[in-house]
Batch of 2 targets.
Target 1
Amino acid sequence: MSSAPILALENLTMRFGGIVAVNALSFTAQRKQITALIGPNGAGKTTVFNCITGFYKPTSGVIRLTHDDGAQFEMQKLKDYNISKQAKVARTFQNIRLFPGMTALENLMVAQHNALMKASGLTFLGLLGVPSWRAAEQSAIDNAVFWLKRVGLLDRADDAAGNFAYGDQRRLEIARAMCTGPALLCLDEPAAGLNARESGALNELLLSIRSDHGTSILLIEHDMSVVMEISDRVVVMDYGVKIAEGTPREIRDDPKVIAAYLGTDEEEAAAVMEAEA
Amino acid sequence: MDYFAQQLINGLVLGSIYGLIAIGYTMVYGIVGMINFAHGDVFMIGGFIALISFLVLVSVGLTAVPVILLIVLLVSMAITALYGWTIERIAYRPLRHSFRLAPMLSAIGMSFVLTNFSQVSQGARVKPVPPIITGGYTLHEGDSGFVVQLSNVQIVVVITTIVLLGLFTWLVSRTRLGRDMRACEQDQTMAALLGVDVDRTISMTFVIGAALAAVAGMMYLLYYGLVDFFMGFVAGIKAFTAAVLGGIGSLPGAMLGGLAIGLIETFWSAYFSVEYKDVAAFSILIVVLIFMPTGLLGRPEVEKV
């Protein structure tokens, strides 16, 4: 197992015209841990995600991903479909992006494209119905069924994903991301719009993904109960730069973080905290 | 009544051919959102390749008709598919991220290229072939002496169409390639993020569309016994109309639209006037689109967030 962190951002900068959305950001996400990326609205969190998953070409900087076996990838150089195929990074979106016209099962099957592609011998063996392809198709279905069961949507496997309730769509999107067999799972506000019970189930799901499947997780989240409860480390951003990094407990007591969230300046926040203590 | 039955048979056969071409239009529109105006000419190319391979097989002394038909079918599908792949690769893919109209203009250009290429390489004259499949059945003989006939060619056209449609439906709904195609249709970026090579999937769409057009070209050759370099234009426009009528982007819609156009044309020619059959087909298209803007089976455009 490689000792390097699963993901390392080195001086990542993303400029849109005159606006610097992310400015020389560096942080690491440790292997088999849950790293939360938090910050006020507009801090540049989603931009970071978009750089990691190839939606944006960063203006400068390196995003280095290291697999367990030591294989390294520079994410900013990968072609779009290789982000999943080679680097094994999967993500979900703040505004859910399922394939609404396809069934839940089909959504999860598309996510297993790579495994099936190999088995179908670039389509043609598949068309002929070669046994090895049938076996691969079956194991893909088994895997999809496993994840549907895991997120509690098995009984709705054949319903169009677009007809699912909001919370169900969120869980289905995570299941789909997991079906790609990711080394790193990037979740953009997975708890947004969930009620307390759903959010508790989500915590449990994410913890089990980390410990049972050995997948590292990078998480953007506004819901502090989720962040505090499940993350191993927290990185705080504001105005495109990192303002703090540490364990949830350290972050909670950091005056800079409180200032960023409450809009006061640091001395004021520190004064409030001292007064409380 | 007999006359009606005969026209129904004729209309369904013609409609099958239109439907096969229409699927190519609707698939490409679904996945890349462009109208492939060169598709009618791909159909024409399919007809020519069927003709050429037929002549080659006959000249080497093959006489078993079913064997000839099967080989001709496979050869014309394969070579026309190659045309489809090449056209996408050189004329559309470089323009994919250009402005919206660019690939469409390129498609119109490609249509001229194919038409003129066939004219120059094969000559401008209509190419007849002797009937390959002969005979048929008399279904009913009326008192007035009118005979309802079902020729063997018509049976072959309809059966081939049904078999291919079944195969195609299976491909789209049950296989990995079909799932990838539908995923790309709905959200290309997301599909790419799940590891789907979008360019390759789009290529495959063109390949399948061209192969189906080749089948239509061969059926046309069998049914009418001729091909010419200009036949792609009118057939292409009709098939495009069929795709729009059925609801562009919808696969069953394309087939339904094809059958509808085929039937309208045939019945209009039979009961009113042959000269105005195209007017009838297009008028009905206009009427349908006024009352059902998304076509018979089309879904309303959903605004993506």
Target 2
Amino acid sequence: MTHISLKVDGTTYEDDVEPRLLLIHYLRDRLGLTGTPIGCDTSNCGSCTVDLDGESVKSCSLLAVQADGGEITTVQGLAQDGELSELQKAFHARHALQCGYCTPGMIMAARDLLREHPHPTPDEVRHGLEGNLCRCTGYQNIVRAVLDVSEEEVKA
Amino acid sequence: MSETVEREVGRARARKEDAHLITGQTNWTDNIAVNGLLHLAILRSPMAHARIDRVDVSAALERPGVIAAFSGRDVAEAMGSLPCAWPVAEGTVMPDHPPIAVDEVRYAGDPVAVVVARDRYAAADALEAVEVDYTPLPTVLEIESALDENAPLVHSDKGTNRCYDYRTTDGDYAAAKARADVVLTRRYHQQRLIPSAMEPRAVVVTPLAASGEFTLYSSTQIPHVLRVLLAVTTGIPENKIRVVAPDVGGGFGSKLQVYGEEVIALVLAKRLGRPLKWTESRSEANLATHHGRSQVQDIEIAARRDGTVLGLKVSLLADMGAYLMLLSPGIPILGASMYPAIYKMGAYEFSCTGVFTNRTPIDAYRGAGRPEATFAIERIMDDLAAELGMDAIDLRRHNWIRHEEFPYTTIAGMTYDSGNYEAATDKALALFDYDKLRAEQADRIDHADTVRLGIGVSTYTEMCGLAPSRWLGEMRYAAGGWEAASIRVLPTGKVEVITGTSPHGQGHVTSWSQIAADVLGVPFEDVEVMHGDTLLAPHGMDTYGSRSLVVGGVAVHEAARKVVDKARKVAAHLLEANEADLDFADGAFSVKGSPEARKTIQEVAFATFASHDLPDGMEPSINADHVLDPETFSFPHGTHLCAVEVDTETGAVHVRSYVCVDDVGKVVNPLIVEGQLHGGIAQGIAQALYEEAVYDEEGNLLTGTLADYLVPAAPDLPEFLTDRTETPATSNPLGVKGVGEAGTIASTPAVVNAVVDALRPFGVRDIRMPCTPERIWQALQPGKEASA
Amino acid sequence: MIPPAFEYARPSSVDEAVRTLADGGEDAKFLAGGQSLLPLLRMRLAFPELLVDLGRVPELRGVREDDGTLVIGAMTTHHHVLHDPLVRRHAGLLAAATATVADPAVRHRGTLGGSLAHADPAGDLPAVVLAMDGELVAVGPRGRRVIPAREFFVDYLQTALAPDELLVEVRVPKTDGWGFKYEKFHRVAQAWPIVGVAALVRRDDGHIAEARVGLSNMGSTPLRAATAEEALSGASDPDAVARAAEEAADGTRPAQDTSGSPEYRAHLARVLTKRAVLAAAGMG
């Protein structure tokens, strides 16, 4: 067992974990933060994307011990005082989700993308989301939602 | 007070379902945590076909945290055989299908043992300690060789790999062929696909040991059907089983199933008296969640020189995989009526032979039988146009049912109630700038450009709204095709809609709210929709086959109308007027001629709740149920146009533009309709260009992960330009036709037609799907022209 | 899927890392970014007894100049590499190829050293470092040594690193003034390249003075297209480049797998070499 300390969505947790425990299982099974789902074994689908110390990471391809000392934001930590983040609002308004399984990862990846490219082209949005698979939307409305947010910021 | 309420049906309402999904407050089956929960892990066969000589779980039982472990033989009796509900032809061969293999494994992925442990890590570790001895058996892996005289048998006790033969004919095809100027014969291959819903399957069973009751949570499309069949399969009384489909992360047909893991979890929860969870990994899903398509299609079309189609002959070899699952035999037959599509002709022959192979079982995948039909007819229509030197659109125009000819009964016996192929096609051509693209194509040919342009057309129709129960009976399907809805107007005026459909991304909560709000005249926000739990919504036939709106949504509409009828009696009584003298508008009854005398439906609901003053003899309820059995199918249609650039040096295909105009009848929610099309088109393009389940010579799946099975990501797809025409269905009061599968059905042939169109100047007539760069490059090599 | 159990150590210096691995016995392994290793563990294709996590060894991260050479710490992430101003200025080919590796989230964790030590011939970066005539610096119980990239990639997933050696630095000569292009051919954005071609071209007086061409996925190791390189020398127009590129598959032994046959890969190597060199030479 290895002792870890992690801040997740603003709360600090200390736990003893098996070194092999995947970060995603730590979040889901130990902390009960089931908002972030798992979709594959090979880091292709991106459903499990969370933010670790300001960068998007795939929490299925990371050991909990590797994240020790880090600060994690999941989709569950995006809304502040009941106010949805701009991306959450845009995903809703644009119908950028259907079954919703990829949505947490997609939103976290989009958040990372906009941090790096605040005003992306449609093509940059598509490439920025290349690590996140969606089977429902054909990505059409996801791309639109992300562009909406970037345009909002231009206006602001 | 009588402001007119804006109609809900037709509004682009953002979805009610989104709130919990965008915030992570989800209820996926794998999220469920209960005290004492144990985890299942399943050991699967690494071989495609082998005799099981020995399964020894004793070492697994010694592992820390392991509660139980079983071989197939240990539990065979309690688990029974997985059901197939669709023996589509007389004498359909129905092999035994134990959830855990007992004597033989028949595909790589067939379960051979199960372990139960205190957490998922311990369960995964324990699998490594299960010892199994196999004796390899010869395999049959290809559809086309399954019926060879010397082919190894998947089920030796059945003496054949032939599952069934199905035939249907209308008109005299031989005579039509004799009269034809042109007869084209083609063989198309529908590759094997892995549905790849983003949420892998999961099951949780919580037993109440004392009373013998079980709640089974499953990532399923069919909680109601599942409940019936779990009872039948395990012998546990149906009224002791509650099935819940919590949030379900996509299905596309792959969760329209009664899976072995559901039976295993239920039976072991009963045996152990403990709650159990099983969660599939993606690599397990690729092996063990049913696959789709996998057919060889022989198609022949007979036509006159002027393009008039005289007849069509279709002969299929359909892969069942190693076992029959819930609907396996029926899937190709769902397409039987759709090969003639939108075209008039005088003769049609259809036959299909189902065969077993040592591969993952095949069952429904988005479109289920209809994409195959549409692909074959739309591909051969393009080929016929090329053969006759006609424009692909002109040939279609020459043969399709004109809008004034509806209702029209096709040669396949389907009566299309409505449609307007001219309008949809004209609109699509304008949006696509068809003539300009054709000019560019010619220009590139003239300049011997290494990048060629191809234009593909697909003017599809499909049958939605599965299904009239009587038709299902004639097709030997075991159940009906009705759908149930109930509406309760609560004392405070809020409304509950209970539906038997089981959405998993389709937005029923929003659309059903819109339908109910309009009929009842209540605010959209005041409607809650309950579904996916046999305790809350006891009656239903669930969600698949683009049926939910056409059958389930219409049932909601009809139940709401019954509520208004009942409320009218109460309102008339309260207003001391005749029912016939009441108007109902914007949620209120008013007396004709004296609009100040009015009662809102909410007031009526409270008055009914109080029941102090109801009409004599009236039951104190305005709530209503409706079970709707559709009289016929619905037939959405549309025109999809695709332009691709093909790099003749590398074989790479780039989809440059994609335009579609779909007519899905009356639209309840344009946002949701467009979303359904988007996803469907993406899946159809994926079949055309990217996806294929590939096996090696031993029957090992080589595309076992998402690193090898190429589900397209955002950069791999173009932007789609979608538009609509609206020709209401005449077969239901909402005028709706269904949209869940339209995009998938339409897009695959549009893309492949475009690829082939680009390559026709090189003498290429077909590229097998998926149209990979290498296949295209091979087809362009001198002397290596692709299969004709 | 779920990794098998292992012990875990997290050293804070290179010396400690090397020592920890040596003490850990035969089945001890270094863990870099984990973007290749974690999937392998989850699929239970690797069973290490000890993982030595390099994630907290600061000296393994970062980019610096050493005269005409860029020195990149082995644990520098792809994300860092492709945004690093020194890399962008002096090793544009590396930046360009790194931008095509996997996806943004994987690039945040995956490292240059990790992907070189993994030595997957289908990886993008081995061929790039090979084309750049890079050098790899290893530290082990017997000290420090420099391995030329040409000698580093030994076989499929095998390098010249001894089992107890740690890759600490990647040294690439600055290629200021060279044209470059990484041509990656894959079926979907996330897929491994069927073939990748990394081209570096130095032009002199209108013709190609020197061309270096690295090939991904054309054999059990990344390869240099030596015959084509030689033929490219002196080429002064697109036709000459195209003729030289016809030699690109010479001496390669590409594999057969679900994404391509050997003959198709050979063909792609030729086409992509032509395109990459033309682009790098500014003749495209």
